[in-house]
Design goal:
With 203 residues, the protein is mainly α. Helix content is 55%, strand content 6%. The chain contains 10 helices and 2 strands, in the order αααααααααββα. It comes from Pelecanus crispus (Dalmatian pelican).
Length: 203
């Protein structure tokens, strides 16, 4: 997310964020992938991930703060409400989609806040620049059929492109979609679309 934001005005891309529900993707693809489980549930993979996330945080210069105990917090916290809130923003105030997403990310991955709580969603909205009145209205519609259906549609669309987890990036290039999974595929993404990788923090 952060690196794509850095590159959106350097590479010749039209960057569009599409809120999707990871839990729905994991549940749906489990049938096809014979037990699609989060990597953190595999002991040796979790041990490696902990080290790798710290290395990647330093390399990409993003404020990820994570420990072994955090895996249970991450797996035990529902992001559905937050994703519906982001979806509602996308439907009504799309110019706030990027700052709102960034603020949710920072609070969850760096400050370890429970983003499923309504009061925290409102705090995120205020930090992203929304008025208290608009934030409250958004909170009131996150359970509406329109918002639920929109999130379901974008989640299904992600799976149509082959997504089996997050982050998933779909690059539409020369009339063909290209799926990239994971945050370590951005150099490859640049190669496919004919753009030069200038490192994690391009000048």
């Amino acid at each position: 997310f952060q690196v794509l934001c850095r590159y959106q005005h350097i590479w010749n891309i039209d960057l569009r964020f599409r809120p999707a529900f990871l839990g729905g993707i994991m549940q749906a693809t489990e049938l096809f992938l014979k037990g699609n489980k989060p990597p953190a549930l595999l002991p040796k993979r979790a041990e490696y991930m902990l080290k790798d996330i710290k290395r990647m945080a330093k390399y990409y210069q993003v404020p990820v703060q994570i420990s072994e105990d955090d895996f249970q917090r991450i797996l035990g916290t529902s992001s559905l409400g937050a994703m519906r809130f982001i979806t509602a923003i996308d439907m009504t105030q799309p110019r706030y989609l990027e700052p709102l997403s960034r603020e949710f990310w920072i609070r969850f991955w760096s400050q370890h806040e429970d983003i499923s709580q309504p009061e925290n969603m409102l705090a995120v909205a205020r930090q992203a620049g929304l008025s208290s009145e608009i934030a409250q209205k958004l909170l009131e519609i996150i359970s509406s059929p329109a918002v639920k259906n929109r999130l379901k549609e974008t989640t299904e669309e992600a799976m149509k492109y082959g997504a089996f987890g997050m982050p998933a990036v779909v690059a539409h290039f020369k009339g063909e979609p290209h799926l990239f999974f994971g945050s370590d595929r951005l150099e490859l993404l640049g190669s496919v679309i004919g753009e030069k990788w200038l490192g994690p923090v391009p000048s």
